[in-house]
Each structure stands twice: as C-alpha cells, then as structure tokens.
Amino acid sequence: QWYWSYEYSDFKNIEIDSYMIPTNELNKFNFRLLDVDNRISIPYNSQVRMLVTAADVLHSWTIPSLSVK
Q: Where is the signal peptide (predicted)?
C-alpha cells in the first residue's frame, strides 16, 4: 500500500523505490509497519541534505535508530 521513492542526486543519479513489507510477509526480525523491501543507506560521517516532498499525503516516514519520525 505505501511506498517511498528516494534519490541520491548529490552524488550519483540513483533512484530507489521502497515498499512497506506487508504484515503477512514479515519475519521475526522485521518491524511491523516500519520495515521495507529496500532500505536506504545514509553516508556515515558526512553532511546529508534531505528534501522531503509528497505527491499526496506523507505517511509514516521514519528513521527509528535516529529517533526521527
């Protein structure tokens, strides 16, 4: 149902689509309503610029390990 698209436009022209894993497909290591099929990787020890936009309504975008929601 929900999906997110990401671009690494400052480094390379990379685009990634990420879909939420349905509850019936989760394993014991996944987080319900948080885990996706393609996780993004954020560069370590670097400045990062995030531009967040939505074509409709922005739902449940989070980085649990950074306490960002």
A: none
